[in-house]
User: What shape does this take?
Amino acid sequence: MDSPRNGVNKERFILSVDVGTTSIKCHVYDKKAQIRGSSCAQVLPLYPEEGHVELDPDALWTSFVSVVKGAVKGQTEFEQANDRACRPRSDAAVQMHQMEALGISTQRATFTTWDRRTGVPFHNFISWQDRRAAALVASWNKSCTLKVCLRGRGVSAGPGDEKALGWLSNLQVIRGLMKALHFVTGQRRALAASQVVFSTQHVTFRLLWALRNYKQVARAASDGNCCFGTVDTWLLFKLTKGGIHATDYSNASATGIFDTYQMCWSQMLCSLLSLPLSIFPKVENTCHLFGSTDPSVFGVAVPILSSVSRSARPPPPLSPARYSARSPDVVDSRPAGRHVWRVLLQRGRREDHHGNGDLHGHQHGRHASRVGLYPLVGWKMGPEVVYLAEGNAADTGTAIDWARALDLFSDVEATSSMAYSVSDSNGVCFVPSFSGLQAPLNDPGACASFMGLKPSTTKCHLVRAILESVAFRNKQLYETVLAETDIPITKIRVDGGVSANDFIAQLTANLLGRKIERCRHREMSCLGAAFLAGLGTGYWRSREELKKLRQADAVFCPKGQPSDARHLERWEGALRRSMHWYERP
Assistant: This one.
């Protein structure tokens, strides 16, 4: 470690920012991956209409700059006095000129469009939780009756629609041909094309909606003056004062518009839906020198060395993932902003991320899903590409924030003890589907609900039911991923904010019948982006060096009880009753 000389500290650090669904966090890491400064701010979603979820681009940018300055200097105007996690703190020796590189991890599939010349957004970010395109998605997935569905739901035809309708009315035929082609040739791409299930979480139809409903977007796209971007692209554009319009493969693949076989924006889909290719950003490696921040932003130019989607950041201590790897290994489960189960790194390795949504993923080769586990690029470093099959439950963090806002509890750290204070939920079930249900059910019309309420129901019963729903969804997605990928798992690791909850971790271990290891570093979105940036700049020289930095915080061994299975079965019944709620008259 460098020591101060002539009053100047030469120690260097890695700056990393995680932009999630409910918060923005920034950490400053030293060589030992210890946090030397941190800050956070809340992300405030907007709900202008039923089913619409938006973010203010300018407010997001202001908060981003604020938390970075707060982590380095220990002060920010967005400090939340009543939230210890959001209070900025910084080593007095840490200065902005000591930042070796910046890494960025962002929520994915949340997008906006803006004027290429002025940089002014045409509209708010349309969140990945937004359901405004649900009718279009349903029409596509039921393409044999597409024309009837569109007209019956009052969706008017726009420019290029007749072309799309003509193609889509024959989509079932195309799917059949693709199945036959796969049978003859064995090509995975043909199988994937025959089994794709579209979701409102994909950018595709929300972007189509924006082009139809925001005239200025369609006009700018026609004039070649429109930029499309997810959160990472917008931040890169702002950080470089409009110099960079780019994204990385992990964020691009999550849009639903990116061809993970050809590794480029899908010309076929764009042609089908009349999406102009000119609006899309350049796609770069996840670990890449995107440029440097403009000195006017932070006072100095900081190299931007990584950009990665927050549910796909690589687990630091694991070795590189290659589809050719044969031996099953580890599954990492990372709970934080969205609750996620993903399998990253070596084949057979599983990662669970628990946060605002639940994601369950498995690393493998390119994947043709039967139930909507969308095939994603986890990351790309040089020639190495890591693919994921991922399912998610979108509203874990939203449900917890909602429950806190209703005063079911004041401190999220107390929820585990509240759940343990009662023997069961007293028959109460909670369905966490504020944004519908994702794979394997794929129902954007599902509603969030409490069922089984009684006069004897207490706050502790309600809190336990909410926490149980997280573990039950874990079980559901775990089995789905295993069935889809057919790769055995030997170890499960968890991280993220929700992983700190002992009740959820233990119940998940019980339901899975598997030992679960909780990482000491729980903010893996930030740390993963930092590791990528550090590897890119040579701050850390190898992955072997990073492996030594991982430590387990706790291990949860299964203690299965017969009642767990009965409670899971009752919850699945509540799940079915909540489905198609918003489609009913």
Notes: The two ends are 67 Å apart (CA to CA). The longest helix spans residues 459-485.
